[in-house]
Amino acid sequence: MTTMEHDIRLEDYLDDKLQSTTDFDHLDTLLSSVEHQRSQLQSQLDDATAALAQARQSESDRQNALMAQIDEFQSLQSSIDVRLQIIASSDAPDEAIKRLEAPMGQLRKVDLAYKYLLLLQDVAKLRQEARSHLPESPKQALEPYTKLKQLCLRLKELQNNADGAAVHLVNFVEGVTETLWDEMKATMSAELEAVLKARKWPNVDPDNAEVDEEWLGCFEKLIDLQVPEVLYSPTVVTLLPFEVMAQIFVKEFRFHFMSDKPTSAPQAIGAHCFPWFTALLEKWEDFLRDNFGGVLAARFAETGVGERMVYMDPVCGFITAMLPVVREKVRDTLEATRGDAAFLSSLMGQLMSFDETLRGGFAYDGGDDDVEEGWGGLTSEVLQDHFRTWLEAEKQFALERYQGIMKTQDARMIDYDFAGVGKTKPTFAAVRVTDLLKSVTTQYERVRRFSHKLRFLIDIQLTILDEYHDYLRGTLEAYLSITSTVGRAFGVTKEQIAALEGTGALETLCILSPSFFFSFSFFHPRKKLTGKKFFITMWEQLQSRAKVTEDQSNLAGGMSYDHVRNRTSAVVGTEDNDNGVLFDETIAAYSARRQTAQKLLSEALASSHHKIFRAYLHRAQWTTISDEVDNLAITAELDEPLRILKRDLDFLSRALGTAPFRRVWRQALEKLNDILWTEVLMSHKFTASGAAQFARDLAAIEGVVERYIPDGSSALGSLSDAVRLLNLPLEGEGMTLKKATDMVYTDNTEAKKMLEEVGVADGGLTAANARQILGRRVENAE
């Protein structure tokens, strides 16, 4: 502060304190006050000066200490550097480390043991806490148990990451957890057992008995105890209340079917054991659902297991509790009957029926989420170990039955009573083989596993079809060897030739054609036979699997993709689903043989016609002159052909279906048409009476054909039109022979006009044909 500023402030101070003359009376007081203030300010100034000096001294001391520490650090650093150099060039540190390894290891073990003890202490506390809540409050008991379970799972996870360390600790905690859970279930189950004993269960009326509050309360407590286990278990959990309630029935089951009683015999399992089980379910079905269905729905309906009937339906829960003893009975039965293939076959059918009863009658799903496939049943469990044995047994039975069928005396005989008129009649062997194939289907169509089904198809049914195909092919080849020139040259017995006389050849070929048709149609999805839907589903499953399976060496049941494709269809695994069916290759082979048999049948008829018409073909009396052209008798040489023709038509009409019958005869009649056209019409001259006689004979042939095949004479249509043209009159008002001849030789236009007037233009006759036909008349030749 400057002197001027000080003077101004002093002046202001005096002006403030001495504003009037009266203020001078207090001047001493004012001076005293000013002196006092000055003393205080001086004291403060002295204190501040002393503090400043002390601070400066302290700062100087700290600075000196810091410098000393820096000097000491630098000295220490230099010393360390020197020692490090010495240590680096010395073996002393390694020896020191080795000496410390053992003590440090012991220290780590002590530390680990201490942590183990703390963990075990926590385990013991959780176990004691869970026990303290039972049986009054199972929900509260679940809290410490859940913590213990989570601890156990965490230890296992850590153990896996640590390459299996702390085995004893993990096993101990896991054992404690499992023991605690068993104790909890036993404690709660004992409470329900006491209630059931007091109610004299199961000596209650299932139709009128009602569950009281105490019983229902124990039931709910057990369900509450199991809710977490049910929700998080990867496998099906048996509900405790049903397990407790089923104990008495399990004992009864063991008494009846697993003791020394006659009903315990393995062969009685289907007659007594399974019916007893289903009767038990039917008896208590309504009682269980009426009393306990609401509890299960309340606990599980809105959870992840709400779709599983084993947790939603009391009857299914009860079945789950009873199945272990039934499963044990099945295992004992299989062990006791090991090597008995016939019984194994029977048992598999009984097991599949039992499984179907549980699935269909009681909606049991086994806890399986697969809605389409559903519960595999006890059958699937048995087949895991015994499928190959069962398959071989069924294959042996089927092949033995097939051999027996083929050895029967009537195997090659046609079963005319199999179907009505117009239906193909197979042989007795074909019918029985088809029935055998169907019976094999019934043996495995209820099996759930696709690979098992495919094995049955390929190993049994396809094998039977292949053998039957080989048999029919052999018969066909034998027929060809007998009827061919080469075959006759190598020697044919009289008996073989005699067997083909009459309708023998037709019968042989009829045996083949319907048999081929009837057998291959068994697997064809377009045929309305038993199993159609089943085989279509099989085909769709095979296609789906073949498209997604990466391992081509194991498409199903150990069979490679190539093996399955070669035995079934070439389009397996492709997008050509519509053009493929199961066993395309077999169907193609059967179809080819059937077509060959029908072709040979037509050829046999044509050959027979050529022989029986031989005398008629060489008849030389077509140029006779007679005034009688009406009411003509049939030519004598035609009597025998008509008789044979009628015989063959009658036989084939009873043996073949309408379609193949008409197809075969159309081909045969077309060849007969060609024979009569070439060797009669085009080989002889005709008078008016001769033409009329030929027309009468043709009408007789057509009459026989029409009797068996309506409109079948159309196969002789071209010859019929030709004979009509051949029979034009010499004179008259309409078209005459001369007029027609003039028109046909004028030009093609006139020829076509003539054919239209005669009414044969639509029959396929050409102008050239007309000239040839009219030229066969003797009158034109003259």
UniProtKB/TrEMBL annotation:
Any one Gene Ontology cellular component term annotated for this protein: Dsl1/NZR complex
Domain of life according to the entry: Eukaryota
Record keywords, A-Z: Coiled coil
Coiled-coil annotated residue ranges, if any: 31-58
Entry keyword Coiled coil: yes
Biological process annotations from GO: endoplasmic reticulum to Golgi vesicle-mediated transport; regulation of ER to Golgi vesicle-mediated transport; retrograde vesicle-mediated transport, Golgi to endoplasmic reticulum
InterPro entries in the cross-refs: EXOC6PINT-1/Sec15/Tip20_C_dom2, RINT1_Tip20
Protein name per the record: Podospora anserina S mat+ genomic DNA chromosome 5, supercontig 9
Keyword Coiled coil in annotation: yes
Entry-linked Pfam families: RINT1_TIP1
Segments crossing the lipid bilayer: none
High-level lineage: Eukaryota, Fungi, Dikarya, Ascomycota, Pezizomycotina
